[in-house]
Each structure stands twice: as C-alpha cells, then as structure tokens.
Design goal:
Length: 285
C-alpha cells in the first residue's frame, strides 16, 4: 500500500467489517479479522486467532503501528483476531465488556483493553471515535454476553455478541464516517449525528423483506445524512479475502436482492453506493 500524505484520510477494506483508516499520522482498524476459518472448522471446531493469517493480513495492508482496534460486537467474525492484532501492533482493543473478556482470555494486558462508554468519545490523534448502542441483525447465532475471560480455543458460539454498536468516526479534516457492523438498528439512536460516509454491513439482509432493509438504511446511513454508502460484510468469510472479494454463497446469504433494495433506496435520495477495493487504501471523498 502507498503511504498516505499527512491528514488525507484514506480507508482500506480488509474483509467482513474490517476497515483500516489512516490519515498519515494515526491508524485505526475496525475488528481486524484475518483468520477467516473454513466453515467446517467454525461449525465443528474451536477457534483461536491464526497468527500467520494475522501477520500476513497486517503486512498486506501495510500496517506497522496501530492506535486502536475498534470492535463493534464480539462475534468471532469480528472480534476473534482483535487481541492478536493488538499484541502485534501495540494497539488498544476498544469495545464492549464482552470484547474486553475475549481480549483478556487471550492474554492481552489490561493496559491494552478499553471498555467503551456508549456516547462518550475517545480521541486518537486527529480521530474522535464514539460508540452508539445498536442491535444485531436477526438471526443472531450467538446472542448474550461473554461474562468471564474467554478460554481459547473456543467454539464459535462462545463468541457472544456482547451488545452491538454503531461507530461514529470523526476526523479533524471534517470527514465523518459511520461504520455499522451488523444490519440491526435502534430507531432514532443516530438522530442528530452527521456523517457524510456510511459503511454498513449488509449481511443477513437477504433474510428480511424490503421494508426492513429500507428501515435499516434509513436508520443508519439515512439518519446521519450520508452522501455515499460503502457496503461491508458481503464477502465469503469462510475463504481467504481476494482482491475481488467473493460474495457469500447464495444459499447462505444472497446479496443480489439486497443490493437491489439498496440501489433503489439510495437512488431515491441521491446517495451514491460505492465499493471499497480489498487490500488497497483509497482516499475518502
Ligand atoms: Zn455478528
């Protein structure tokens, strides 16, 4: 990846809802999920961060130092690798008390774990990050809290969501982003918040009618007045992330009708739908 000039905000898509943000001074990463274990391992095995995959993922993304790993909920396809990413990069793992217990169970030092207070901003360089309470899309395969330090390796269902958040990322340049890691919402939760860019999970929207999808778009991207939407969480995370991400198999989650709903909703409002290329940093404008 090219190194970015100072204060020019760039973003890179690293799969599922892992997004790297870099302004030339400070790097933040959501989730940092690189292990992407195969489906049979998720269903039958126990999961732990794959150190090789994490190392290669960080190298491929050009990450050397990182201020924070921001975790929107603690399901394995979001939070599994967060403590390993933090261990390698010196970053702080930021998230719910469940995410904290996951990181603790992995042996990450307390000094690198931060439990968020919803609505209370955290400052990292020129970034200001605020977590707002949200909801997980249904079905939720592992609802509830991780109430004690998680023992690794652990079954996928042990990675309970621990509460879901919408992440507001404000930058000194004036660019604000909303990152929504699951396609659930709390009505009105984001009213009064402005972000011109919305990166939103579209996973599992195929299981919901158009009316739900439209409500979701309205309560996330719509609520913050986004001018551009970048879909997240559409790639098949049981396989490695390719340059052109491969979508989920249709029998699991068919994104075609979801994108129809999104294009229609966005078209009615003059909102652009864009795609972040995988493994490349692009300017956010
Ligand atoms: Zn989830």
């Amino acid at each position: 990846m090219q190194s970015s000039s100072r204060k020019e905000l760039r973003a890179g898509f690293l799969g599922v809802t892992s997004v790297l943000l870099d302004d030339g001074d400070t790097r933040l990463l959501t989730d940092g999920f690189f292990s992407r274990p195969a489906l049979h391992r998720v269903l039958l095995g126990r999961l732990a961060p794959d150190a090789t995959q994490v190392e290669q993922g960080l190298a491929r993304a050009g990450v050397t130092d990182l201020k924070a790993v921001l975790v929107g909920h603690s399901h394995y396809d979001h939070a599994l690798d967060a403590p390993e990413v933090a261990r390698r990069s010196g970053a702080l793992v930021v998230g719910s008390s469940s995410t904290a217990n996951l990181a603790r169970g992995y042996g990450l030092p307390e000094a690198q774990i931060r439990v968020v207070m919803p609505g209370e901003p955290l400052v990292f360089g020129a970034f200001r990050v605020t977590f707002y309470p949200s909801r997980h899309v249904l079905p939720n395969a592992a609802a509830g809290e991780i109430t004690a330090p998680l023992k690794f390796p652990a079954r996928a269902r042990a990675f309970r969501d621990g509460g879901c958040f919408s992440l507001l990322i404000e930058h000194e340049s004036g660019k604000n982003l909303l990152i929504q890691e699951s396609a659930g919402f709390v009505r009105g939760a984001l009213s009064g918040i402005r972000a011109e860019i919305a990166m939103i999970s579209i996973a599992m929207l195929s299981r919901h009618p158009d009316s739900y999808r439209r409500a979701y778009f309205s309560e996330t991207a719509g609520a913050v007045g986004a001018k551009v939407i970048y879909p997240l969480h559409y790639d098949d995370f049981f396989r490695p992330l390719e340059l052109l991400p491969r979508p989920m198999p249709r029998w699991m989650d068919d994104i075609r009708p979801v994108l129809d709903s999104l294009e229609r909703w966005a078209g009615e409002r003059g909102v652009r739908v864009g795609w972040l290329p995988a493994w490349q940093m692009v300017p956010l404008d």
